[in-house]
């Protein structure tokens, strides 16, 4: 029996990937200049980054309940099981809303096997989990096998983030404006990581060379089995820096595959242009 896969725009995968693999798409929402947009549908990340560089502060919100319900209903009518892998509940309320909408849909379609997973992942890390699930769907795994495997995958996934300009985190209330000003003067680059679905500070590095060196050290400490895994790199209006990071990772670890994609509007609205993130599996 076919298992249908659903994900949302915070996975930071190209829309073409969703379309080519028949994956249901749920857009999160972004507000900019008093107008509301659907992430990756009516606005793209480049527009967000340009606006932020011009001093605007976009705001984000979870996917609307009706949007989520409509996607679920679409699959309920097929009679096949469906699995929604959601953006981390630590960063968005979309997962909780999806659980409520799933219960409503199941009241109307009691035989519909619909499952909702809190990935506790973000950006292309979340995207790697979606790709993993898609491969399992193609291979004909059952929904139980896919659900179990995806949960294990997400638990093993490392997220290492760095931002180029602390000002954007200050605007969003993540750090004080004084810290952002001093950090900028000293060329301090913060490293952040995901813990239980939330983005938390790891350490501060001065200068890009030391930053790249430290990221490689963390990958050596935490990662492994490189020849059998895909590394993800997401970036925000700094593709050249991401390519430099990609080349360094290739030379050091020779992973099976490295995929790159721009950070989307949702996460980009908080992190800002210049953000770089690396995703890989733990040892």
Automatic annotation (TrEMBL):
<dbReference type="GO" id="GO:0008289">
    <property type="term" value="F:lipid binding"/>
</dbReference>
<keyword id="KW-0446">Lipid-binding</keyword>
<dbReference type="InterPro" id="IPR003797">
    <property type="entry name" value="DegV"/>
</dbReference>
<dbReference type="InterPro" id="IPR043168">
    <property type="entry name" value="DegV_C"/>
</dbReference>
<dbReference type="Pfam" id="PF02645">
    <property type="entry name" value="DegV"/>
</dbReference>
<dbReference type="InterPro" id="IPR050270">
    <property type="entry name" value="DegV_domain_contain"/>
</dbReference>
<protein>
    <submittedName>
        <fullName>YitS</fullName>
    </submittedName>
</protein>
<comment type="function">
    <text>May bind long-chain fatty acids, such as palmitate, and may play a role in lipid transport or fatty acid metabolism.</text>
</comment>
């Amino acid at each position: 029996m076919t298992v249908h896969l659903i994900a949302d725009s915070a996975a930071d995968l190209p829309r073409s990937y969703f379309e080519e693999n028949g994956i249901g798409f749920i857009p999160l929402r972004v507000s900019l200049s008093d107008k509301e947009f659907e992430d990756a549908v009516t606005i793209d990340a480049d527009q967000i980054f340009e606006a932020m560089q011009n001093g605007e502060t976009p705001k984000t919100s979870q996917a609307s309940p009706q949007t989520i319900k409509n996607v679920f209903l679409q699959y309920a009518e097929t009679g096949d099981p469906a699995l929604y892998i959601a953006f981390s509940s630590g960063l968005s309320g979309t997962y909780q809303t999806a659980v409520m909408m799933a219960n409503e849909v199941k009241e109307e379609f009691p035989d519909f096997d619909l499952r909702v997973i809190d990935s506790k992942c973000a950006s292309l890390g979340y995207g790697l989990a979606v790709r993993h699930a898609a491969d399992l769907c193609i291979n004909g795994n059952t929904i139980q096998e896919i659900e179990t495997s995806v949960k294990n995958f997400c638990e093993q996934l490392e997220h290492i983030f760095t931002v180029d300009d602390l000002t954007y985190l200050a605007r969003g209330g993540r750090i004080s404006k004084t810290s952002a000003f001093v950090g900028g003067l000293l060329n301090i680059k913060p490293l952040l990581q995901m813990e239980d679905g939330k983005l938390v500070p790891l350490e501060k590095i001065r200068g890009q060379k030391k930053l790249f060196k430290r990221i490689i050290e963390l990958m050596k400490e935490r990662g492994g089995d490189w020849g059998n895994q895909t590394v993800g790199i997401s970036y925000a209006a700094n593709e050249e820096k991401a390519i430099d990071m990609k080349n360094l990772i290739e030379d050091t670890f020779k992973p099976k595959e490295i995929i790159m994609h721009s950070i989307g509007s949702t996460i980009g609205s908080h992190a800002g242009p210049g953000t770089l993130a690396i995703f890989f599996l733990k040892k």
